[in-house]
Amino acid sequence: MTISTQSTTVSNGVNTEALIGARGAFEQTPEAAQFTFHSTCDWIEGTFNRNTINSYFGLGQNHERKRTFTIEADHPEVFAADDRAPTPPEIVLSALASCLTGGVASVAQHRGIQLRSVRAVVEGDIDVQGILGMDPDIRNGFSAIRVRFEIDADASADDINALVAQSQKRSAVFDILTNPTNVAVSVA
Amino acid sequence: MRHIHSVIIGAGQAGLAMSRCLSDRSIRHVVIERGEVANSWRSERWDSLRLLTPNWQSRLPGFVYSGPNPDGFMNMDGITGHLKAYAEISRAPVETGTTVLSVTGVDRNYRVATDKGDWLCRNVVLASGACNRARIPGFAAALPEDILQITPLGYKNPAQLPKGGVLVVGASASGVQLAAEIAAAGHEVLLAAGQHVRVPRHYRGRDIQWWMDTTGVLDMTTREVDDIVRARRVPSLQLIGDHRIQFHDLNALGAAGVEVTGKLAGIRDGVALFSGALANNCALSDLKMNRLLAEFDKWAERQDEAGNLGVPERFGPTLVPASPRLSCDLTGGRIRTVVWATGFEPDFSWLRLPVFNGKGQLIHHEGRVAPGIYALGLPFMRRRKSALIDGVGADAGAHADHIMRTSGLRVA
Ligand SMILES: Cc1cc2nc3c(=O)[nH]c(=O)nc-3n(C[C@H](O)[C@H](O)[C@H](O)COP(=O)(O)OP(=O)(O)OC[C@H]3O[C@@H](n4cnc5c(N)ncnc54)[C@H](O)[C@@H]3O)c2cc1C
């Protein structure tokens, strides 16, 4: 079955034409589709640290943004920290929510669905005995992650469910969390 | 070296249909087959397999099923016999027991080298099949050595497998059928399911294939889908050729004691790692099924005789286990066999022409590969049904017409 792309005046603020154009271009030159993202983390004090994010590599060259972004992380008081910023796992949850929410907007635009509001509520369960090294059978990371979407849009329940499903199918962070990745850590 | 107008490689349904279409147009040709007629159906399928498509749907140019049970499903002897009868009735000039070793260009002709001599011809039809090799992920090499690896092309029945657990990778028609059969034989079975397509055997009182055929879903052309690359990769339907089995899906397998988990994502230190995306793959599959059924309902509303059809139905969702396993230690001795039901690919290693893309896949437009080179039986080649028994005939006819036209031009 095809999903017809409607040319109505739906506007979710996503330029899907540009994205589809990019797909065409990458088919011709797959090298241009090779991106590398960076984040640089500096320790400040205790568990408090700050990431700065600016340049990335893609389309065969390095790109400098006009703005440098920062993401800080810390731990809450129950872990004897100062709670100056969210914990890294919470940042991971927010990355998942952002990725899926952006995906919902893009897919909705492509399918001609006008969104009025979208909210994703994410929860992740962690048994901290894992990070504390108390029980080797308990993993450090989330044992389960749940995302609940609340979406108000001009579409049937099935169409909305399809938006959310397609967004997961095409999400980088969903993939990162659901599939293993080789991680190499070295010391300069 | 022998000279002939056209050489067809392969005597499955594709090669036989092509031969028939060329004979109907009085074009001299030969069909070269490494085994016997219907070799793939004879030797590369498992014992219990029946076609997923009903008997009436094995229509080929100038040949239809005329037995007593049009709604039945042929077993492998049945389809082999069907194609043998077709070859005889069509007087297909098949050279059996002859393997094509290479196809090369010679001026504006082609040389087809075989283990029984060479042919020089203007046209070559690649009817050698789309399922010659199992498509196995690269990380298969990381499997512990004492685990038996088998594919649906080599699997015959559960007696081949050592005692113990079996990991079946892939949940298309092959994967679900093998998982169920192996579990019924008493093995512990773990099924890794990625993207899959769930459909009921019957809908509103008719076979699903009747719906796909009658409503035109199978006739859809490459221009009617918005992403042909994706459409060509859609896995086969979770079906079995048995009217008693309405669903051969993950729910049915779960009820039969098969443990279902996500797609096999990799193997690390002897441990199989599964994706945590099973729930979404099930949701996608349910949504897709419901969209298909809704299309059928819309079609039915437009028909006069809609009264003859049953009422619209909707089926419960796939029941996803609360927390499907994310890993399985393959060194512990519990899993003794891995079945790669991860899809198939053609083998054109003998085709020595610059007609492949960076991934080694054949480049073609509607099955036309290069002047004088034609393909048949590839997934969604011209229409959705191109790789099916029922679909290859129309493609063969189009190629035969093209060969007529281009031959005419060359003569002039
Ligand atoms: C498990 C399974 C179940 C299927 N069930 C159905 C179904 O129910 N209904 C349906 O419509 N379709 C079904 N299909 C799809 C399709 O009909 C089959 O794959 C069918 O075999 C394709 O026919 P073909 O003629 O294109 O290729 P094949 O049947 O594979 O025929 C190709 C022939 O070429 C020969 N050959 C290959 N290489 C050479 C060479 N180098 N030299 C000489 N000869 C060569 C082979 O020996 C073979 O005989 C199924 C496929 C599979 C794998």
Describe the structure.
The complex is a heterodimer of chains A (188) and B (412). Chain A is of the alpha+beta class and 188 residues long. Chain A folds into 2 domains: 23-85, GMP Synthetase, Chain A, domain 3; 87-179, GMP Synthetase, Chain A, domain 3. Chain A contains 4 helices and 8 strands; from the N terminus they run H-E-E-E-E-E-E-H-E-E-H-H. Chain A has helices at 16-28, 88-110, 157-169, 172-178, and strands at 36-37, 40-45, 48-53, 56-58, 61-63, 69-73, 115-125, 144-153. In chain A, helix 2 packs across helix 4 (172-178). The longest helix of chain A is centred in the middle third of the chain and has 23 residues, at 88-110. Chain A is globular and about 55 Å long. Residues 1-7 of chain A have low confidence and may be disordered. With 412 residues, chain B is of the alpha/beta class. Chain B folds into 2 domains: 2-132 and 346-406, FAD/NAD(P)-binding domain, CATH 3.50.50.60; 135-340, no CATH class. Chain B has 9 helices and 22 strands. In chain B, strands 1, 2, 3, 4, 5, 6, 21 and 22 form an 8-stranded mixed β-sheet that branches. A 5-stranded parallel β-sheet of chain B has the order 8-19-9-10-15. The longest helix of chain B has 24 residues, at 278-301. Chain B is globular. The A-B interface holds A 1-3, 5, 30, 143-144, 158, 161-162, 165-166, 168-169, 174-175, 177-180 and B 217, 224-226, 262, 265-266, 268, 273, 275-277, 280, 283-284, 287-288, 290-292, 295, 323, 358. Bound molecules: flavin-adenine dinucleotide. Flavin-adenine dinucleotide is lined by residues 9-15, 32-35, 39-41, 45, 51-53, 99-100, 127-129, 131, 152, 174, 344, 350, 377, 387-390 of chain B.
How would you briefly describe this protein structure?
Chain A has 188 residues and is an alpha+beta fold. Chain A contains four helices and eight strands, in the order H-E-E-E-E-E-E-H-E-E-H-H.
